[in-house]
Amino acid sequence: MSQAADSAVSGETFLTLLLEHARVRPDNVSIREKDLGIWQSWTWKEVANEVRWLACGLASRGFKRGANLAIIGDNRPRLYWSFAAAQSIGLVPVPLYQDSVTEEMFFVLDNAEIEIAIVEDQEQVDKLLELLPRCPRLKLIIYDDPRGMRHYSQPELLPYSELRDIGREYDEAHSEFYPSAVAEGKSDDVSVILYTSGTTSKPKGVCMTHQALIDAARGDVQHDGFNEKDEILSYLPMAWVGDHLFSYGQALVAGFTVNCPESSDTVMTDLREIGPTYYFAPPSVFENLLTQVMIRMEDANRLKRWIFSACMDIAKRCGAEIMDGKSVGLFDRAMYALGNMLVYGPLRNNLGMSRIRVAYTGGAAIGPDLYRFYRSLGINLKQLYGQTETSAYVCKHANGESRLDTVGRPLPGVEIKIADKGEIWVKSPGMLKEYYKRPDATAESISPDGYFMTGDAGFIDNDGHLKIIDRAKDVGKLNDGTMFAPQFLENKLKFFPFIKEAVCFGDGRDVACAFLNIEMQAVANWAERKGLPYAGYVDLAGKPEVYALLQECVDQVNADLAQEASLAGSQVRRFLILHKELDADDDELTRTRKVRRGFVEEKYAPLVTALFDGAQHCEIETQVKFEDGRSGTISADIAIRDVKLVTSESVRQAT
Predict the structure, then answer these.
(1) Do the Cβ atoms of 480 and 545 come closer than 8 Å?
(2) Cβ pair 146, 33 in contact under 8 A
(3) At which of 263, 292, 308 does a domain end?
(4) Which domain holds residue 101?
(5) How many CA atoms lie within 13 A of 278 on its CB side?
(6) Do both 128 and 30 map to the same domain?
(7) Confidence band, pLDDT 50/70/90 cuts, at residue 5
(8) Beta bridge partners of 459
């Protein structure tokens, strides 16, 4: 009998896993949280009790099996317990991105027919109170952090601590209720609704069952040998499938410890204090970490910069091979050991990665240069590939099989088929049950023979590894027939610490062009060292000196492309530096920081036209949303730079 069939027969759910950990390892630490500078811990037994009392509190308010419950906030133990408490009595949790603006929240609250919300703090309460008149189904808002809530008297509000106490009393009076409710749960029940990022359209609610997520989590745990001794830092949005799988699903399968940082501002400090053994981050986080490293090195004295540069040259030459256990010459191995003592070891410790034995990146393609950098430091960074609809369970690199240009082999139980135009179709144990209230979208996304159509383009190479090219709809051609893969170009550009975002255009055109965003901290640091005055982001981004700095980065990317026959013609021939950062609040990025390329192209149509018409500058006025909810405009006269074509012959002569 298959694993999935076993799960269905046994009625295994996340609650049965939680109760088993409470029985087998009651005194092991299940979760920690840093609050006011102090780490607080809860054991599996304590977590099981907290979940039980919260579940009983919800039941005491009359909420019935099948109702949907929103969870909004940063990574907090009580919010993770809210998932389990809801699931234990048949409610369906629906996590929302904590930085969503009210209109984004309204779509999910309305679409998911939310009746209850458990939120972190006053900020989230204020958003929901503003939406209450438009959300008649929302009857109860439970808040965890009471700070700032003293004078709130709305009848819909209830402190988390009070609901917990009510639940404890309810449990004492109805001791048979909770075990009966847990026993009623089935493995094919919907355990969570995760909304997609909405890169090209409105988000869709992905209904995932206990069975799908548990099978995906168990496959991952077996793939990398995770166990109850492992530690993970949970700082990514709880509404994202990655965090839900790693910090909730895998933790309940393997029994390892989840650590919640004090705030988003203290993640790096908390990472160093915990020293996790298992780490996951999207490419943007690894890009930011690299930027911080490069900024510090620019500020270092000449000797330190020389040592760093020399050691990194050695690491690039043989570090990844040593990590994979491949044969490396004795001299290189000795030099790498010296570099490990002087640079790599201290740098891993500074990044909080000295204990990491497995690190993954996914959610978007990572640039090969960025990937090589971390592996060359001795960090076992690997790639994974998956979607919300597959529980992020499709492909992963195995130890010793890491490759810069692939996302690994299919995981156990996964089938992959390459359809028309190179689109990747997937069957996974972690497949969605359906899209919430969207039978049309479900039918459009799943083939008659049960494959999920990912929308990504790629192929299986001779070693059985999956290679991702780009989104199938985004891969195009220049007018001369050269393949144009915008995401590939964007990742190469974003490797440089001075470039935060890049958006490339070229499909159906003669050349490739790019919008660039400066990385403000890195470029500002550079400007200060050069004695270059500036009045703010718009002023700094428009400086001729900054254009020259970024052109060096573009030239390097073009030199790399010149050596790839199939991509040489897609070199960036013109670029501009945007006068503002691309922002999720302005709908230019998704909440998982994926560029909404179509929206950006439409919003900045005059700039796109100027790029391809040969103009040397373009005036534009852009509407923006500020953090306090106000709107305003930013005006700028944006310069456009031409870039020379690099030939493979010129690259050979230069080297």
Answers:
(1) no
(2) no
(3) 263
(4) 3-263
(5) 22
(6) yes
(7) very low
(8) 467
Structural domain contains residue 31? yes
The model's pLDDT over 520-575, given as tens digits with 9 standing for 90+, comes to 988 999 999 899 999 999 999 999 999 999 999 999 999 988 887 777 889 999 99
> Residue 297 — very low, low, confident or very high, per pLDDT cuts 50/70/90?
confident
Please give the distance of CA 321 from its chain centroid, rounded to a whole number.
Answer: 27
Q: Which two tokens stand for residue 571?
A: 């070199």
CA dist 277 → 241, 342, 345, 427, 555 (Å) = 20, 22, 15, 30, 38
CA pseudo-torsion sign 601, 602, 604, 608: positive
HEC-encoded secondary structure of 491-525: HHHHCCCCEEEEEEECCCCCCEEEEEEECHHHHHH
Contact 438, 204 (CB under 8 A): yes
Tokens standing for residue 535: 């009045």
Is the Cβ–Cβ distance between 611 and 508 less than 8 Å? no
Q: How many domains does the chain have?
A: 3
With pLDDT > 70 as the criterion, what percentage of the chain qualifies?
Answer: 96
Handedness of CA 351, 352, 358, 362 (dihedral sign): negative
How many CB atoms sit inside 10 A of residue 515's CB?
24
Angle at alpha carbon of residue 316, lines to 310 and 320, rounded to 5°? 140
Q: 570 is written with which tokens? A: 């897609």
Encode burial over 139-164: b for 16+ CB neighbours within 10 A, e otherwise: bbbbbbbeeeeeeeeeebebebeebb
Is 224 a member of any domain?
Answer: yes
What one-letter code names the amino acid at 402?
S
Residue pair 93/80 in contact by the 8 Å Cβ criterion = no
Residue-wise pLDDT for 93-121, tens only, equals: 999 999 988 988 999 999 999 999 999 99
Classify residue 581: in a domain, yes or no: yes
Q: What is the CATH number of the domain that holds 229?
A: 3.40.50.980
**524: in domain:** yes
Q: What confidence tens digit (pLDDT) does each residue in 425-466 have?
A: 999 999 999 999 999 999 999 999 999 999 888 888 888 999
Whether pTM > 0.90 for this model: the answer is no
Write down the residue that tokens 């027919």 correspond to.
Answer: 113
